[in-house]
Write a structure and sequence with these properties.
This protein has helices spanning 17-28, 53-61, 65-71, 93-100, 109-122, 169-175, 243-250, 258-263, 294-297, 306-323, 328-357, 362-374, 377-389, 408-411; strands spanning 9-13, 32-36, 48-51, 77-82, 87-92, 105-108, 127-128, 133-138, 144-148, 153-154, 158-161, 181-193, 203-208, 212-220, 223-231, 271-277, 285-286, 289-291. It is α/β, with parallel strands linked by helices and 415 residues long. The strands form four sheets. Strands 5-4-13-14-15-12-16 form a seven-stranded mixed sheet. Helix 1 (17-28) runs parallel beside helix 5, helix 1 (17-28) runs parallel beside helix 10 and helix 4 packs across helix 13. The longest helix is centred in the C-terminal third of the chain and has 30 residues, at 328-357. It is globular. The structure holds flavin-adenine dinucleotide. Flavin-adenine dinucleotide binds next to helix 1, strand 3, strand 12 and helix 10.
C-alpha cells in the first residue's frame, strides 16, 4: 500500500503480544502506528509462554531474537508422564528446532512484554496506557471511531483490534458478538524460583492424569513456570482463598518435581483462569477495522500456539499492507486468505487435544496414554513442523493448504 498517498494513521487497541508485535512489524515497513492499552502500565501478571520455531521466525524478522535469547530458555525436550510417573514418550524439541530452522524459547510473559515494549520505545511507537476502549461505532462517512472510557475517541485510517479474547470491543464491532466459550477446565498458573535447581534439565514436563494435568516449563533450572489444570463446571471455576494449598493437595501424590515447584511458588502469586476460547469467525474485518491475535482467533492453551499465531499475524499483516495496490479491503482480504485456515485448524486442534487431556473415563485415558507412548518421535516432529510452519518461508513447513494435522492433537488423537 502506498504510504505517501495513504498517509496512514494506524490505531491499535491492545498492547499485548499481538498489538505490540503488529506495531513493530508495521513500523518496520515505515508506518507510524499508535497503541492504546487499557492497563495503567506494563503487565506484570501471567506466567510464561513457549515460543515455538514459527514464532522465532517472526521474532528474528522483527529484530527481537537476540533479546529473547537473552531472557529465554532453550528447552531441548518435552517429556510426558502419567500421574504415577510412567513415561509416555515425548517430543525431541532439538530435532524440531533443527527441522524448522529456528529455536524454541521459553519466556516469562512479563519479560516478553518488556522486550516488546522496549523495542516499541526505541522505534518511536507511542504506547498510551490507561486507554480502555469501550465501544466502536461508524461515523457519517463509514469510518470507525473508537471511544475510550475517559471520554476521548480516535478515528484512525486503520483501526486494529488486538484487545484479546475475553472482552474484545473490536470483535464485538466486527462480528456483533464476542462471547468466549468455556471449554470445561481451569488452569492455575504460577512461576517458581529457587536458589537451587528445581528441575534436572532444560525440558518441558507434561503430566497427564484423568481430568487433570500438570505442565512445567524450565526457563532456567532454577526458574520454572507451570500450569496445573483440572476439568470443572464453570460455576466451580472460581478462585479460592488458598489456591496454593488447593493445588498442592490436588497434586500431592503426583511425581516430583511437581510438589517442589508448587512449594517454590510465592503463596499469593498463583492465578486461576477459567479457560475459554472463541468460535472461528466468518470475517475479521468491518469498515476500516481489522482483528488480530486472540481477538480474531483465540485457541485454547492446549494448542500451544496462541502467542505464536499473534506474532505470525504481525508478520503477515505487514506484508499484506505492503503488497497491496488497492485499499484496505484488498489488504483485509489477503490477510484473511492467508490466516484463516491455519488459525481455525489450530483452534480445533486445541479443542481436540483438550478433550483427550481432560477425559475422566479410565479406558479413554488408557488409550490416550498408549497412543502417546507408541507415537513415533521423528514423525511427530515432521507433523508439527508441517503444521506450525504452514504459510511461513521456513524449512520443514508446508506452504499449501493441504496440512490436515500438524498440532499436538494429531500426535495422539483419541477420536
Ligand atoms: C495459561 C495459558 C498459557 C498459554 N501458553 C501459551 C504458550 O505456551 N504459547 C503460546 O503461543 N500461547 C500461549 N497462550 C496463549 C497466549 O497467551 C495468547 O494467545 C496471547 O497472549 C494472545 O495475545 P493478544 O495480544 O492477542 O492478547 P492478550 O495477550 O490478551 O492482549 C490483549 C491486550 O489488550 C488489552 N485490552 C483488552 N481490552 C482492551 C480494551 N477494551 N481497550 C484497550 N486495551 C484492551 C489487554 O489489557 C491486553 O494487554 C497461553 C494462554 C494461557 C491462558
Amino acid at each position: 500500500m502506498d504510504k505517501e498517498n495513504f498517509s496512514v494513521e494506524i490505531g491499535i487497541l491492545g498492547g499485548g503480544i499481538a498489538g505490540l508485535s503488529v506495531a513493530l512489524a508495521l513500523r518496520k515497513q515505515g508506518y507510524t502506528p499508535r497503541v492504546y492499552e487499557r492497563r495503567a502500565g506494563p503487565a506484570t501478571m501471567g506466567a510464561g509462554v513457549t515460543l515455538w520455531p514459527n514464532a522465532s521466525f517472526v521474532l528474528k524478522e522483527l529484530g527481537l531474537q537476540q533479546d529473547i535469547e537473552a531472557i529465554g530458555g532453550r528447552p531441548l525436550t518435552m517429556r510426558r508422564q502419567d500421574a504415577a510417573g510412567n513415561a509416555l514418550g515425548g517430543l525431541d524439541i532439538g530435532l524440531l528446532d533443527r527441522t524448522m530452522g529456528y529455536p524454541t524459547y521459553t519466556v516469562l510473559r512479563r519479560h516478553l512484554q518488556e522486550v516488546l515494549l522496549g523495542h516499541a520505545a526505541r522505534a518511536g511507537i507511542p504506547v498510551e496506557f490507561g486507554r480502555q476502549a469501550v465501544a466502536i461505532e461508524l461515523d457519517a462517512h463509514g469510518r470507525a471511531v473508537a471511544h475510550f472510557e475517559n471520554g476521548t475517541s480516535i478515528r484512525p485510517d486503520l483501526l486494529i483490534g488486538a484487545d484479546g479474547r475475553m472482552k474484545s470491543v473490536a470483535r464485538k464491532f466486527v462480528a456483533g458478538d464476542n462471547t468466549p466459550i468455556y471449554q470445561g477446565f481451569v488452569n492455575w498458573i504460577g512461576v517458581a524460583q529457587a536458589p537451587h535447581a528445581l528441575v534436572e534439565d532444560m525440558s518441558i514436563q507434561d503430566f497427564w492424569g484423568a481430568g487433570e494435568r500438570f505442565g512445567c516449563v524450565a526457563i532456567r533450572p532454577e526458574l520454572v513456570y507451570w500450569a496445573a489444570a483440572q476439568a470443572r463446571p464453570l460455576h466451580e471455576a472460581i478462585p479460592t482463598a488458598d489456591m496454593h494449598k488447593e493445588v498442592e493437595n490436588l497434586f500431592a501424590a503426583w511425581p516430583e518435581p511437581i510438589s517442589s515447584i508448587i512449594r517454590a511458588t510465592p503463596e499469593n502469586a498463583i492465578r486461576l483462569i477459567a479457560v475459554h476460547d472463541l468460535e472461528p469467525l466468518h470475517t475479521w474485518s468491518r469498515a476500516n477495522v481489522l482483528l488480530v491475535g486472540d481477538a480474531a482467533h483465540a485457541p485454547l492453551p492446549t494448542s500451544g500456539q496462541g502467542a505464536c499465531q499473534a506474532l505470525e499475524d504481525a508478520w503477515h499483516l505487514a506484508r499484506c499492507l505492503d503488497g497491496a495496490s488497492g485499499g484496505l479491503e484488498e489488504v483485509f482480504q489477503a490477510f484473511a486468505e492467508i490466516r484463516t485456515s491455519k488459525t481455525a485448524r489450530l483452534a480445533e486442534q486445541g479443542r481436540a487435544f483438550a478433550r483427550g487431556l481432560f477425559a475422566k473415563d479410565p479406558e479413554t485415558c488408557r488409550i490416550r496414554n498408549e497412543r502417546a507412548k507408541a507415537s513415533d518421535p521423528v514423525r511427530d516432529v515432521q507433523v508439527l513442523a508441517a503444521g506450525w510452519g504452514q504459510g511461513l518461508p521456513m524449512p520443514g513447513g508446508a506452504d499449501g493448504t493441504s496440512v490436515k494435522g500438524g498440532g499436538f492433537d494429531s500426535l495422539y488423537r483419541i477420536e
